[in-house]
Fold this protein.
Amino acid sequence: MEVYEMEVKEIRIGDLCPATFINQKIDKIKESVRKGLAVNALSGGVDSSAVTVMGYIALGNRLKTYFIDTGLMREGEPQQVATYFEIMGIPIEIIDAQGRFFDALKGLTDPEEKREAITRTFYKDVFADLIRQSGARYLLQGTNYTDVEETVAGVKRQHNILEQLGINTEEQFGYRVIEPLVQLRKPAIREVAKALALPKAIYNRPPFPGPGLAIIVKGEVTPERVRIVRKATKIVEEVLSDTGAFQYLAILHEDKFTGVRQGKRDYGFQIEIRCWESADAKTGLPTRPSYDILDLLAEKIPTEVPGVVSVTYNITKKPPSTIEAE
Ligand code: XMP
């Protein structure tokens, strides 16, 4: 993987005045889009939610906000995100792009190839179409400093990094990208989201990556394998959400394991659980859940997720691990 220069300058949380930052970014969005239209990519995470509110304050109904249902989201996520924004009076539209993403991922097993396919489908297919249909010339998105840093350093290609990899979005996709949060890391973005009066359920939301469940499925991403990891994710989030951890996830492995159920061989799947303590995702420590919690996960996952016969807990730090497996 190529290594690029880091050109963006970080604003550290100690130097951030959220109100001033917000006003400056709103002015900047107005200045860039002028009297035109912009398309906005909302995933429901803290980053894209903060951008959505700033974009809406700047542009009102000239901002077209879309939630792309990639088929790689958690259970009930598209409707839940739509409801949050409906309550705030910000119109959003859910776009069903499941078929496009599963087609693009067919046969791919290499993590960087999977990430590439997701980037291409988002930007070259789905957003390029939406932009063409709406007549907009700009795409707003919530890229943050850590996303850029890891991608330019060659650690892994975060799905939303384009211009920093030398991609000319105007030439290649027909629109320019506006990234108001690119100088901030997650804790600073949470302060901005709080100042924008977003609900706590959003400004405190644990990170969940744009490529969604695709990068916690080792190997090929099929609808069937996504269903398994989605069920395991639901259990892990229910059990670990009170721990106050930075992020927690369930990974579906490719290898199969011999298990036994009701005295008979059951050759099934393995789920690996990770639960992280971290300030900004740059480094991380595995948390130390009580054995009661681990026992509960070991009981619930093989019982409630068909086909799973093995559950492990990862104890590696970042580095050398990364937070997610891919
Ligand atoms: P890693 O796995 O590299 O992740 O330690 C660091 C943080 O970034 C999130 N992540 C992503 N976020 N697009 C995103 O928007 C991506 O492609 C992506 N990959 C990883 C990850 O959830 C963690 O919080």
In short: The chain has a mean pLDDT of 95. Strands lie at 38-41, 63-69, 92-96, 138-140, 176-178, 247-261, 264-277, 285-286, 308-313. The pocket of xanthosine-5'-monophosphate is lined by residues 147, 150, 156, 158-160, 207, 209-211, 247, 281, 318, 322-324 (CB under 6 Å).
